[in-house]
Specification:
It contains four helices and four strands, in the order βαβαββαα. The chain has a four-stranded mixed sheet with strand order 2-1-3-4, with helices on both faces. The chain has one domain: Glutaredoxin (3-Layer(aba) Sandwich). The protein is an alpha+beta fold and 85 residues long. A hairpin with a 2-residue loop joins strand 3 and strand 4. Helix 1 packs parallel to helix 3. The longest helix is centred in the first third of the chain and has 12 residues.
């Protein structure tokens, strides 16, 4: 299973929803908080092709996007394949 990284901020309902879906699927993930950390925010945006909103989710080196993108993959039946690649 590839590593999963999620960039988050405190008090972000979309971050919480994305983490909840990953937990429901028993997926371990690394959480990187970008609260007040300009360097981490810039690193996230660089890795996410300029996207600066949270969450930003990566499965292995694949940029999934945000919470809606993660749930979209789940609804399309494509998330499990990505997680097991």
């Amino acid at each position: 299973m590839p590593s999963v990284t999620i960039y988050t901020k405190m008090y972000c309902p979309y971050c919480d929803a994305a983490k909840e879906l990953l937990r429901k699927k028993s997926v371990a993930f690394d959480e990187v908080s970008v609260d007040g950390d300009r360097v981490a925010q810039q690193a996230m945006a660089a890795r996410a092709n300029g996207r600066s909103t949270v969450p930003q989710i990566f499965i292995g080196e694949t940029h999934v996007g945000g919470c809606d993108d993660l749930y979209g993959l789940e609804q399309a039946g494509r998330l499990d394949a990505l997680l097991s690649a």
